[in-house]
Design goal:
Length: about 160
């Protein structure tokens, strides 16, 4: 299946980046001190933000992107068209592999905006990419969408290729 290409209006993308920048200050990052803010924009124009939540076990740490996706799902939304990620500079950080796969669960392709801020919260660098280029050949269950929906509805866990 070819990736569905999503688009978003510039005003919505500005709103998306603003939400990711705003939530970054709430990051719980006492170990790495690497604060990340993320936000997803849905086709309906809703924005959901999340920040990284580190844990003393390290392994239980939640990335900002997954935190934003969880907020989207908790609100009953499902159709992201763009994701913004804001990190410390000088260069923007990109989503980790797990977050790329989590985003691909809801959209095989979406616009990813990467923004870097300095210590005063001023934007120092920007870049963008398509999720499909960041995560080529994302894992998908080898099933039609209807079958996938049935599996999700039954709550069972099926392996895939
Ligand atoms: Zn991540």
């Amino acid at each position: 299946m070819a990736p569905r290409v999503s688009s978003a209006a510039p005003a919505d993308l500005r709103r998306l980046v603003a939400a990711a920048r705003a939530v970054r200050v709430n990051a719980h990052a006492p170990y790495s001190r690497y604060r990340v803010g993320a936000a997803v924009l849905t086709r309906g124009g809703n924005v959901y933000a999340g920040c990284n939540v580190e844990n003393a076990t390290y392994g239980a740490t939640l990335c900002a992107e997954r935190s934003a996706v969880a907020a989207m799902v908790a609100a009953g939304d499902r159709d992201p068209v763009a994701c913004a990620v804001v990190t410390a500079g000088p260069k923007p950080g990109a989503p980790c592999g797990i977050c790329r796969q989590v985003l691909a669960e809801f959209a095989l392709d979406l616009k990813v905006l990467l923004v870097a801020e300095d210590a005063r919260g001023r934007v120092v660098a920007r870049s963008s990419a398509r999720l499909a280029s960041l995560l080529p050949r994302a894992f998908r269950l080898g099933l039609h969408e209807a079958a996938l929906h049935r599996i999700r509805g039954s709550g069972s866990c099926a392996g895939g290729r």
